[in-house]
Write a structure and sequence with these properties.
The protein is mostly helical and 205 residues long. The chain is 70% helix and 0% strand. Helix 1 packs across helix 8, helix 4 packs across helix 8 and helix 8 crosses helix 9. The longest helix has 22 residues.
């Protein structure tokens, strides 16, 4: 039988070719607009091979990000219980990950995002689509409010990670996790479930 042309066979370089294509697609078009078919086309493979190596689009994205954890395994703990405590549970889970061995990879990713636009885009997509969107959809937040609420939560979580683990500003850098949970959690709770001010454009109109 004649071999198909224009497609990479399943060799060791195939996986990296798919990941390179995925990183470019996710950074350029975002998680929602990037498709498995388009990524496969860029990598020169059949879409079925992408699924063979990575399973779902979410799993491909996490592999492309070199994410230290899969948020889907952690969010049930955050989402379980009283909705009024989700802010504190989110901060507690966030700190548990960053204070674990996985936090080393997180710090490297955060440092890279500061100086590399592509990494910054990937980090933004990761935070929005893999974490915040899942939390906010669980709480049935109005679709029109999702972008602002999600962005506000991100300011606290990414800012906390930057100050505690990269800049290492005291006393936050060495504070007990529960101190930060009690301090930051209520602010995140307000961003998630509290009233929002009227939204205005950058010109103030």
């Amino acid at each position: 039988m004649a071999r198909r042309t224009g497609r990479r066979p399943g060799n060791p370089g195939t996986r990296e070719a798919i990941l390179d294509a995925a990183r470019a697609a996710f950074a350029e078009r975002g998680f929602d607009a990037a498709s498995i078919r388009a990524i496969a086309g860029t990598a020169g493979v059949d879409p079925a091979l992408v699924h063979h190596y990575f399973g779902s689009k979410d799993q491909l994205f996490l592999a492309a990000m070199q994410a230290p954890v899969d948020p889907r395994e952690l969010l049930p703990t955050v989402l379980a219980g009283d909705p009024g405590g989700i802010g504190e549970r989110l901060v507690r889970t966030f700190l548990a990950v960053w204070d674990s061995p996985a936090g080393t990879a997180g710090v490297a990713l955060l440092r890279s995002a500061v100086s590399n636009e592509w990494t910054a885009r990937l980090l933004r997509e990761f935070v929005v689509t893999q974490v915040l969107r899942r939390v906010l959809h669980h709480l049935d937040v109005a679709p029109a409010e999702l972008p602002l609420r999600g962005s506000l939560v991100a300011t606290q979580l990414i800012g906390l990670a930057m100050i505690r683990y990269v800049v290492r500003l005291e006393p936050v850098a060495s504070a007990a996790p529960e101190t930060l949970v009690a301090s930051v959690g209520p602010t995140i709770q307000r961003y998630i479930t509290g009233d929002l001010p009227p939204q205005r454009d950058s010109a103030g109109s």
